[in-house]
Amino acid sequence: MSELDPSSSAPATDLVGPQSMTPSEAFVETLAANGVTEMFGIMGSAFMDAMDIFAPAGIRLIPVVHEQGAGHMADGYARVSGRHGVVIGQNGPGISNCVTAIAAAYWAHSPVVIVTPEAGTMGIGLGGFQEAKQLPMFQEFTKYQGHVTHPARMAEFTGRCFDRAMAEMGPTQLNIPRDYFYGQIKAEIPQPQRLDRGAGGEQRLNEAAELLATAKFPVIISGGGVVMADAIDECKALAERLGAPVVNSYLHNDSFPASHPLWCGPLGYQGSKAAMKLLARADVVIALGSRLGPFGTLPQHGMDYWPKNAKIIQIDADHKMLGLVKKITVGICGDAKAAAVALTQRLTGRTLACDASREDRAAQIKSEKAAWEKELDEWTHERDPYSLDMIEEQKDERTFSGGTYLHPRQVLRELEKAMPDDVMVSTDIGNINSVANSY
């Protein structure tokens, strides 16, 4: 690259002002400025010039069998690391393979940047090599789409895509005509611009604190935003001040420790009956870092458990999520960690209405959790008529090698018991995967 320190694999940090370089160098220098060390994808002719300088910049391209896998890997990388996940592929069919993965990242609020080289400018509209309309493919599932309109603007658009992905917590697309990787330009590498997310507006925080001060049975829904904001300890502090049961939003079972006495399990499809029964008793609900999506709050186990008359406080970093799915009383656009701290501070030293019933609430939490665990112990197979018929038909065939087959629910319960303390569980979606949410 134009300004590499020969003693280091990382780019030099003293690039100040416009520098003479190729557009590929501007692209890679901007990746390096944003801390990119891994990318996922399949090498293609569209970006070979840039790829030649990935390694000198300290960037590793991790190859995949299929581009959809690269997109999902970038999503997973972003979720685990808190950094950008970056995916790149050949223009046309390579990039179109990533649509589903980018959609998944969009709904997970993952800061993924997908780099989509496209047909060269002289071939666009003429059936150029693997030409496709690549911006419309992703417009429903990206927070921002940057289309490089001139080679000299390569660093500008690249930097903006990285900034917007983190600012809006979602995927962005960087679309680059393949001939724009070449030539000679003057470019200044933009430094990353990161938002300092606050707790939210003072007025809304004060309103929420007043609601909580008068609540007799507050319940906290801990969502994916709690994990993304590294706010589990702050959520615990708020829950402990209130003596509030904490339920996880759907498939965000890692947003509150199951070892904590206030933890009650996940909501949504095949979730915890204990969580649902306790949420149904709430007079004030705090949705911390949750969009309250419809699938994660749907009736389950024959219970329509959403508390119809409860006052709802929703806290989300994306203001567009506030009140989108559920009617809310107070909406706070803010960081989950900062908002939890601000609310805890406002409640410290005050006498709360829920203080008088703290012990009774703790007893209800313990009782409902024990009842649900007992039900799961006894729930060894599905009980619907079809399943019962299948069990009856196959009961004579279930013996093998001196043992017996386990029903899926038995398998899940035994796996749960056998897991070490530091295990990480990841599921796909589908019936058996969703049933795992019960455990």
Would you give an account of this structure?
- The protein is α/β, with parallel strands linked by helices.
- The chain has three domains: 19-187, 3-Layer(aba) Sandwich (Rossmann fold); 202-376, TPP-binding domain (Rossmann fold, 3-Layer(aba) Sandwich), CATH 3.40.50; 379-438, no CATH class.
- It is 36% helix and 15% strand.
- The chain has 16 helices and 16 strands.
- The protein has helices at 23-33, 48-51, 67-81, 93-96, 99-107, 134-138, 154-167, 202-214, 224-228, 232-242, 273-280, 336-347, 358-378, 385-394, 408-418, 431-435; strands spanning 19-21, 38-41, 60-63, 85-88, 112-118, 144-147, 172-177, 185-187, 218-222, 246-248, 263-266, 284-288, 311-316, 330-333, 399-400, 403-404.
- A six-stranded parallel beta sheet has the order 3-2-4-5-7-6, sandwiched between helices. Strands 11-10-9-12-13-14 form a six-stranded parallel beta sheet, sandwiched between helices. Strands 1-8 form a two-stranded antiparallel ribbon.
- The chain is globular, with a radius of gyration of 26 Å.
- The termini are far apart.
- Residues 1-13 have low confidence and may be disordered.
Question: Outline of this structure?
Answer:
The protein is an alpha/beta fold and 439 residues long. Helices cover 36% and strands 15% of the residues. The model is unreliable at 1-13 (pLDDT under 50).
